[in-house]
C-alpha cells in the first residue's frame, strides 16, 4: 500500500536556499511538493528553477491563497525574518505546521510564535542551522568547555550575509559559556591597537566574524589548555549540506508540540 506523502509548500522558493529545498523535496519519495511561493520569479515554472526536476508547478506570490488552495501539511520557509510572525500565524490558523530556516528571528517574535502554536495546537520549528555537522560541532564544544574553559569562536561566511556574528556562532558561544565548570584564564590588560581585534564577547566567549566572497558557512571553535589546543571545525561547502536536516524536520514536525527551536532537539 502506498504511504501518504507529506504535502510541502516551499516559501522563498526562488531564493538560493529555496531552490535547494525544491530539489530536496522533489527527490524525496516521502514528500510531495504542492506549492512554491516567492515575491520574485512569479509565474516561473519550478522545473526551470531546478533543471527539470519535480512536479509542474509555477511560483506564486500570495502566501495565504496558496495555502488555502494547495492545503499543505507543512511549509518550509527560507525567506526573511521580517515575515516570520505573519507567516507562522497564517499557517497555524489553518493547522499547517511550519519549518522556518530564515535566520535572525527576534526573541520577541519567537515568543509570539510559540504562543500561536500552543493556541492553535499546531507545532512548528525554527532551525537556525540545519547542517547536522554544525549541530554536532556545538554539541562537542559544549562537552569540551567542561574541561577546557578557554575558548574562542571564529566564523567565516560569504560576503552577502546580513548579520554578524552568525546565529550559530552566537549559540555556540552561549553553550560554551553555560557549560564551563570553571572560569577562563584572566588575560592581562591588553593593548588594543585596532578596535574589534579581540572580537565581540558573547557569554564571556570572544567571537570573530569573517566575511569574504568565495566562502559559504564555516566555523572553528578553538580551545586552549596547558600545552594543548583543540580545534573543532565545521564547513558547509554546499547548500545541500542543510537538506538532510530540512527533510528530517519536515517529516518530524507534526509529531512535536508547540514551537521547537534548533535541530538538536530532534537529533539528541
Ligand atoms: P535569498 O535572498 O537567496 O532568498 C530569499 C528568498 O525569499 C528570495 O527569493 C526572496 O524573494 C524571498 N522572499 C523574501 N520575502 C518573502 C516573502 N515575504 N514571501 C515570499 N518570499 C519572500 O537568501 P538565501 O541565501 O536563500 O537565505 C534565506 C534565509 O535563509 C536567510 O535568512 C539565511 O540566513 C537563511 N539560511 C538559513 C540556513 C539554516 O540552516 N537555517 C542556511 C542558509 C541560509
Describe, in plain words, how this protein is organized in 3D.
- The strands form 2 sheets. The chain has a 7-stranded parallel β-sheet, with helices on both faces. The chain has a 5-stranded mixed β-sheet with strand order 8-9-7-10-11.
- The chain has 2 domains: 6-129 and 240-267, NAD(P)-binding Rossmann-like Domain (Rossmann fold, 3-Layer(aba) Sandwich); 132-237, Dihydrodipicolinate Reductase, domain 2 (2-Layer Sandwich), CATH 3.30.360.
- A hairpin with a 2-residue loop joins β8 (200-202) and β9 (205-211).
- The protein is of the alpha/beta class and 268 residues long.
- The protein contains 9 helices and 12 strands.
- The mean pLDDT is 96.
- α4 runs parallel beside α5 (107-119).
- Bound molecules: nicotinamide-adenine-dinucleotide.
- Residues 11-12, 14-18, 37-40, 78-80, 83, 101-103, 127-130, 242 line the site of nicotinamide-adenine-dinucleotide.
Principal-axis shape equals: elongated
- In angstroms, what is the radius of gyration? 20 Å
The first-to-last residue Cα distance is 32 Å
Q: And the CATH topology of the largest domain?
A: Rossmann fold
Question: Quick one: how many beta strands?
Answer: 12
Query: DSSP strand (E) fraction?
Result: 15-25%
Question: What is the domain tally?
Answer: 2
CATH class of the largest domain: Alpha Beta
pLDDT averaged over residues: 96
Amino acid at each position: 500500500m502506498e504511504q501518504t506523502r507529506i504535502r510541502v509548500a516551499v516559501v522563498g522558493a526562488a531564493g538560493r536556499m529555496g531552490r535547494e529545498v525544491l530539489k530536496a523535496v522533489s527527490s524525496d519519495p516521502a514528500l510531495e511538493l504542492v506549492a512554491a511561493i516567492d515575491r520574485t520569479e512569479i509565474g516561473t515554472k519550478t522545473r526551470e528553477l531546478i533543471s527539470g526536476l519535480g512536479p509542474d508547478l509555477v511560483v506564486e506570490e500570495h502566501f495565504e491563497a496558496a495555502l488555502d488552495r494547495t492545503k499543505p501539511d507543512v511549509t518550509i520557509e527560507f525567506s526573511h525574518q521580517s515575515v516570520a510572525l505573519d507567516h507562522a500565524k497564517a499557517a497555524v490558523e489553518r493547522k499547517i505546521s511550519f519549518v522556518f530556516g530564515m535566520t535572525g528571528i527576534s526573541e520577541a517574535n519567537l515568543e509570539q510564535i510559540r504562543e500561536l502554536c500552543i493556541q492553535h495546537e499546531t507545532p512548528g520549528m525554527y532551525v537556525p542551522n540545519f547542517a547536522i555537522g554544525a549541530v554536532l560541532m556545538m554539541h562537542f564544544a559544549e562537552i569540551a568547555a567542561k574541561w577546557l574553559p578557554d575558548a574562542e569562536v571564529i566564523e567565516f561566511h560569504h560576503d552577502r550575509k546580513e548579520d554578524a556574528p552568525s546565529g550559530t556562532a552566537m549559540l555556540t558561544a552561549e553553550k560554551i559559556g553555560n557549560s564551563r565548570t570553571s572560569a577562563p584564564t584572566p588575560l592581562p590588560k591588553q593593548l588594543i591597537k585596532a578596535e574589534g581585534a579581540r572580537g565581540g564577547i558573547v557569554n564571556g566567549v570572544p567571537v570573530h566574524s569573517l566575511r569574504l566572497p568565495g566562502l559559504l558557512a564555516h566555523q572553528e571553535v578553538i580551545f586552549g589548555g596547558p600545552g594543548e589546543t583543540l580545534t573543532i571545525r565545521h564547513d558547509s561547502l554546499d547548500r545541500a549540506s542543510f537538506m538532510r536536516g530540512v527533510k528530517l524536520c519536515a517529516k518530524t514536525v507534526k509529531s512535536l508540540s508547540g514551537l521547537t527551536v534548533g535541530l538538536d532537539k530532534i537529533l539528541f
